Automatic annotation (TrEMBL):
PANTHER family: MITOCHONDRIAL METAL TRANSPORTER 1-RELATED (PTHR43840:SF15). The chain crosses the membrane at residues 12-38, 82-100, 112-132, 153-175, 181-198. The keyword Endoplasmic reticulum does not apply. Residues 12-202 form the Cation efflux protein transmembrane domain. Residues 212-288 form the Cation efflux protein cytoplasmic domain. It comes from the Bacteria. This is Cation diffusion facilitator family transporter.
Length: 298
């Protein structure tokens, strides 16, 4: 199973469970007079739409290079990640708006049986979030990480509703707005993480530098090849679930072109067959000790 397929499988699980939870939350919310649960249920429907967009992005990213896209279609995964981050920020804004509206307009306290439903939602959504987060780390998918944070946002708002509704039921008259105040606190966490996710995905979309450990590992792999004197320059960018790389290796200047070319191929093969997902490696072979005036990325 490819990394894209692993990520897609995780998102499909999200869609199925979100559909079930949405039905439960809206139904119980209507019967139990819980505005928080109804809003939460609608949010789960929105999460299904976001998850579908992530699946589309991962599917497109899996397509091989063609005449119109010589570098492949990997960028679709980053676009799906941006969409997921923006929709997370929008979800936080929507919940905050409804919470403020409910605080300003007095309403009755929800029924007690909404509490066990909220506990179930928190357990399922946090479990789903951890599963998706683990798979996002495994596949290095920012779009899947966004999907994981949608689940955690659900768990946070449900947790806030649980605390708020409990206070409202215990406090009685005058405490009806407690669940909405708690939801506002949860929104702050959603906004912070939505912003961080957006920043990270935008960094990748703008061909930002990869993590330092990837550079160190790529340099070590290249330098270990017999005939390589040193790694002069290295740059890489993320595309989809892997990386494109330019690496400058220096070899003995007295070697024949054929021998230098062979060493370059050895470096390329070692990087492409490593555990890291280096999708495309362009090797520049240069004579050791010579200085170059042309400008290159580091």
């Amino acid at each position: 199973m490819s990394q894209n397929q692993v990520a897609i499988k995780a998102v499909v699980w999200s869609i199925v469970l979100n559909a079930v939870l949405a039905c439960v939350k809206v139904t119980v919310g209507i019967i139990g007079h819980s505005y928080a649960l109804i809003a939460d249920g609608i949010e789960s429907v929105n999460d299904i739409f976001v998850s579908l967009m992530v699946v589309v992005g991962l599917k497109v990213a899996e397509k091989p290079p063609d005449e119109n896209h010589p570098y492949g279609h990997g960028r679709a995964e980053q676009i799906a990640g941006l969409f997921s981050a923006l929709s997370l920020l929008l979800a936080g804004g929507t919940i905050a708006y409804h919470s403020i509206h409910n605080i300003m307009h007095r309403h009755s306290s929800p029924a007690w049986f909404t509490l066990p439903v909220l506990v179930l939602v928190i357990v399922v959504k946090e479990g789903l979030s951890r599963y998706a987060m683990r798979k996002s780390d495994e596949t290095m998918s920012t779009a899947l990480k966004g999907d994981a944070w949608h689940h955690r946002a659900d768990a946070i708002t449900s947790g806030a509703a649980l605390v708020g509704i409990s206070i409202a039921l215990i406090g009685g008259d005058g405490f009806e707005m407690a669940d909405d105040v708690a939801a506002l606190v949860g929104c702050i966490i959603i906004f912070i993480n939505g912003g961080q996710l957006f920043k990270a995905t935008l960094h990748e979309t703008m061909d930002g530098a990869a993590q330092e450990d990837l550079y160190l590992e790529a340099r070590a792999i290249g330098a270990a090849i017999p005939g390589v004197c040193m790694i002069e320059k290295l740059r890489m960018k993320k595309s989809g679930l892997g990386y494109h790389m330019d690496i400058h290796v220096q070899v003995d200047g007295l070697l024949s072109v054929h021998e230098g070319h062979r060493i370059g191929h050895d470096v390329q093969r070692a990087l492409l067959t490593s555990d890291r997902r280096f999708l495309d490696v362009i090797v520049h072979v240069e004579p050791y000790g010579h200085h170059h005036t042309h400008d290159q990325g580091s």
